[in-house]
Amino acid sequence: MISKMTWRSIFLSEKEKFYFKHIENMVSRERAAGKIIYPPNSAVFNAFYLTELWKVKIVILGQDPYSGPNQAHGLAFSVLPNIEIPRSLKNIYQELLNDIPGFQVPSYGFLKSWADQGVLLLNSVLTVESGKPRSHAHFGWDIFTNKVISIINEYCEKIVFLLWGSHAQKKFSLIDSKRHYILRSSHPSPFSAYRGFFGCSHFSKANQWLNNIGKTTIDWVP
């Protein structure tokens, strides 16, 4: 059934619903009022453009986009080339360094290669006002991303879900743990990484799961 399901078909369905129209209106109103909203309109759904539904192997769930200039481009935790690596991503690289033999910390934070390999880098909330983290959390984006998680749960087979932090772990109830592999830890934020993210070994565990079920593993060097 998954061969007949695409993100495009899902978007066409969801965009007709009241909640999605409300989100679009709220974001449009903010932009029209002169507020700086990240990511740019053309990049809000980049995660879906780069990782089609049939291609998903791993879901990494973030909260909302980076709220600093030129950072957010539609992929959770990722920044464009030549942009300073944010602290959360530095901690992700630190865990990779400890977890994956031979990993070398790159000088950039662009994670497109992960998305190309089937890692859906999904934020729960897809837009944010400049300098105001969580400012769009009340817009209704969680309704949409809950739908995304539910569709992956239903139509995809044996997906790895990396749920980092309490907000991401709220999605646990949407996932059938008998069909999929769920890994949970604290968030890689500098405020919480030492409470369980460091040492979680999620990257090697995810690859071991993929290898065990006959799927190609992820090259975690971005």
TrEMBL record:
InterPro entries in the cross-refs: UDG_fam1, Ura-DNA_Glyclase_AS, Uracil-DNA_glycosylase-like, Uracil-DNA_glycosylase-like_sf
Name of this chain's protein: Uracil-DNA glycosylase
Domain Uracil-DNA glycosylase-like as annotated: residue spans: 49-210
Entry annotation: catalytic residues: D64 (proton acceptor)
One GO CC annotation: cytoplasm
Family annotation (Pfam families): UDG (PF03167)
Keyword Iron: no
Family: Belongs to the uracil-DNA glycosylase (UDG) superfamily. UNG family.
Gene: ung
EC number from the UniProt entry: 3.2.2.27
Keywords, alphabetical: Cytoplasm, DNA damage, DNA repair, Glycosidase, Hydrolase
Described purpose of this protein according to its UniProt entry: Excises uracil residues from the DNA which can arise as a result of misincorporation of dUMP residues by DNA polymerase or due to deamination of cytosine.
Catalytic activity: Hydrolyzes single-stranded DNA or mismatched double-stranded DNA and polynucleotides, releasing free uracil
Ranges in coiled-coil conformation: none
Record-level Gene Ontology MF annotations: uracil DNA N-glycosylase activity
Lineage: Bacteria, Pseudomonadati, Pseudomonadota, Gammaproteobacteria, Enterobacterales
Record GO biological process: base-excision repair, AP site formation via deaminated base removal
NCBIfam families: PRK05254.1-1, PRK05254.1-2, PRK05254.1-4, PRK05254.1-5, ung
UniProt xrefs under CDD domains: UDG-F1-like (cd10027)
Subcellular location field: Cytoplasm
HAMAP family: UDG
